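Give me the fold.
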Amino acid sequence: MEKMRVKLPAEHWSGFSYESIWVDCVSFNHYQVKNIPFYVEDLAPDDVVKGRSEDDRLVFESFAEHSGNSVLLCICNGPIAGAELLVTLKEMAFRYEV
């Protein structure tokens, strides 16, 4: 597994210019996303993306294949709401990161 940088839009709400995601090489310049992206939109675990080397770093080039997975970003107001959401996600067999 290796990290890939994905550029974020200018003035992204996070204040960051890029997000690093974990990927596995599946073929020449094609990588499968292995984590849940937090800031990058329209990218989900198991999607396949194209990458290239730039300044000795692996960087996102383009989207290649959709996995059928989706990402839902939830921001909870307080620990009780968050705990209730996690119970529901577990019951529905969702993969999640906290």
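The CA atoms of residues 48 and 57 lie 18 Å apart.
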